[in-house]
Design goal:
Helix content is 77%, strand content 0%. It is mainly alpha-helical and 163 residues long.
C-alpha cells in the first residue's frame, strides 16, 4: 500500500523541493483516511466506467437510444474525472486540470461534453451527438495521457511515423 501511495502521489525524492509530497499535502488538507480515499476513487471510477458501458449498450434502443447514451456517457466521463478528486482533493484536481499542459484538453473535453448533451436534446441531431461523443473520448484520452510522462510525445511520434 505504501508503494501505491508513493506512485499515486508522484513523490520523487530528487524533485521534492518543498519537503512534502502531494499525498502529505492532501492528507493534511482532508479529513478522509487513505483507505476511504481509495474506496471513493474506485467506486467513482467504476461507476463512471459502468455508466459509459451501459450507455454504449443502450445506444441501439429505438427512439431513445442516443439521448440515453449521451447522458450516460457524459455522466460516466464526469464520474471518472471526479474520481481523482478523492486522491488529490478538489482544489488540487482543478489546479491540475487548468495547468498549461492540460488546459486545452480539459477545455475541449468539457466543451464536447456540453455539446454532446446539446446535440442529443436541444438540437436532436444524432450525427452531431455521436461526433461530439467521439471528440469527448479523444479529449478525455489526451487529458489522461498528460499524467503519464512522455506518453503524449510517444503517441505523437507513433502517429507521425504511421502517416
Amino acid at each position: 500500500m505504501d508503494k501505491l501511495k508513493k506512485v499515486l502521489s508522484g513523490e520523487d525524492e530528487e524533485n521534492n523541493t518543498d519537503g512534502t509530497g502531494i499525498l502529505e499535502r492532501a492528507n493534511q488538507a482532508s479529513t478522509l483516511a487513505w483507505g476511504t480515499r481509495m474506496r471513493g476513487f474506485l467506486l467513482c471510477f467504476i461507476l463512471g466506467l459502468l455508466c459509459s458501458i451501459l450507455g454504449s449498450c443502450l445506444l441501439w434502443l429505438p427512439g431513445l437510444g442516443l439521448p440515453v447514451f449521451a447522458v450516460l456517457y457524459s455522466l460516466g466521463n464526469i464520474s471518472a474525472l471526479a474520481s481523482t478528486m478523492f486522491l488529490m482533493g478538489p482544489c488540487r484536481q482543478l489546479k491540475n486540470m487548468c495547468a498549461k499542459e492540460r488546459a486545452l484538453a480539459t477545455t475541449l473535453m468539457l466543451v464536447c461534453l456540453v455539446l454532446t448533451l446539446c446535440s442529443a436534446f436541444w438540437w436532436s441531431n444524432n450525427g452531431l451527438a455521436l461526433l461530439f461523443c467521439l471528440l469527448q473520448f479523444m479529449a478525455f484520452t489526451w487529458y489522461g495521457l498528460s499524467y503519464i510522462p512522455f506518453a503524449r510525445d510517444g503517441i505523437i511520434k507513433c502517429f507521425s511515423a504511421c502517416f
